[in-house]
């Protein structure tokens, strides 16, 4: 399994170079402007909570891999609430008609963001417990990259607004680093697992598909951040396939 973790690390380094993360690290831009994409990611953040509960967690885990999946996702179960709190802090909490809110979430601007959740749902179907664990670990890796880029902007925005951010603040990143899958002993335990070449290929494919979908997601988020679009500027017609 060590080669799988090395592959995740290599994909993470490439992911870290996406334009959104360069944008988030650009201290010449107002921190609240750097975080302007945040409302556009709402569909994935909230849907991921459902995916974790309905697709990934096992009520009666059958092996060590499923136990680790349950532990990891339990540790993240309430993080979506932090996201909602940050929307308010950042001023992205306008009063809208319910239909307008739905049009925003399902607008042309968020097609790839919404597709990300469905891609993960489709990818998770039929996976073995080890494959699903690698899927969850890869999701964790993308989050680590994103939060390491976003937290400095979140910290600066909090200082500017005189109210700390939570989801995009240092507390969330600290919690991510303390997850069970990040524990050194757990990592060594997983690295020592022997896998044959066909399984290695399947696990590499899972990692690649996750990162491909996340690349589309963060590139769309970057376009939203750079466009200056807000709730009032998004196409008012919902884009439902």
Extended strand count: 0
Taking the alpha carbons of the first and last residues, their distance comes to 39 Å
Which stretches are low in confidence, meaning pLDDT under 50 for 5 or more residues running? none
- Which architecture would the CATH scheme give at its second level? Up-down Bundle
Helix proportion range: 55-70%
**Element order, helices and strands?**
HHHHHHHHHHHH
The number of distinct structural domains comes to 1
Instruction: Using the coordinates above, name the CATH class.
Output: Mainly Alpha
* Category from helices, strands and their pairing: mainly alpha
Main sheet, how many strands, which sense, barrel? none
The CATH topology turns out to be: Heme Oxygenase, Chain A
Describe the protein's architecture and organization.
The protein is mainly alpha-helical and 241 residues long. The protein has a single domain (2-21, 43-228), classed as Heme Oxygenase, Chain A (Up-down Bundle). It is 68% helix and 0% strand. The chain has twelve helices and no strands. The chain has helices at residues 2-15, 19-24, 31-34, 42-56, 64-75, 79-89, 98-105, 111-124, 129-161, 170-177, 184-191, 197-227. Helix 1 packs parallel to helix 9 (129-161), helix 1 packs parallel to helix 12 (197-227) and helix 9 runs parallel beside helix 12 (197-227). The model has no long low-confidence stretch (mean pLDDT 89).
List the helices and strands and how they pair.
Blueprint (H helix, E strand, L loop, with lengths): L1 H14 L3 H6 L6 H4 L7 H15 L7 H12 L3 H11 L8 H8 L5 H14 L4 H33 L8 H8 L6 H8 L5 H31 L14
């Amino acid at each position: 399994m060590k080669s799988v973790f090395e592959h995740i690390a290599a994909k993470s380094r490439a992911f870290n170079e996406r334009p959104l993360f360069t944008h988030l690290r650009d201290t010449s831009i107002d921190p609240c402007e750097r975080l302007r994409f945040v409302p556009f990611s709402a569909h994935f953040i909230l849907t991921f909570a459902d995916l974790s509960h309905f697709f990934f967690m096992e009520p009666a885990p059958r092996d060590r891999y499923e136990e680790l999946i349950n532990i990891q996702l339990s540790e993240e179960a309430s993080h979506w609430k932090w996201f909602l709190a940050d929307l308010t802090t950042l001023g992205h909490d306008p009063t809208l008609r319910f239909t307008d809110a739905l049009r925003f979430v399902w607008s042309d601007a968020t097609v790839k963001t919404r597709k990300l959740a469905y891609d993960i749902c489709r990818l998770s179907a039929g996976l073995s417990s080890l494959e699903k664990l690698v899927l969850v670990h890869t999701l964790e890796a993308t989050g680590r990259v994103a939060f390491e880029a976003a937290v400095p902007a979140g910290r600066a925005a909090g200082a500017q607004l005189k109210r700390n951010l939570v989801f995009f603040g240092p507390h969330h990143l600290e919690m991510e680093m303390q997850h069970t899958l990040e524990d050194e002993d757990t990592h060594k335990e997983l690295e020592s697992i022997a896998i044959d070449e066909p399984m290695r290929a399947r696990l590499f494919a899972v990692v690649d598909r996750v990162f491909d979908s996340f690349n589309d997601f963060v590139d769309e988020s970057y376009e939203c951040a750079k466009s200056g679009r807000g709730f009032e500027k998004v196409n008012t017609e919902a884009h439902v396939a």
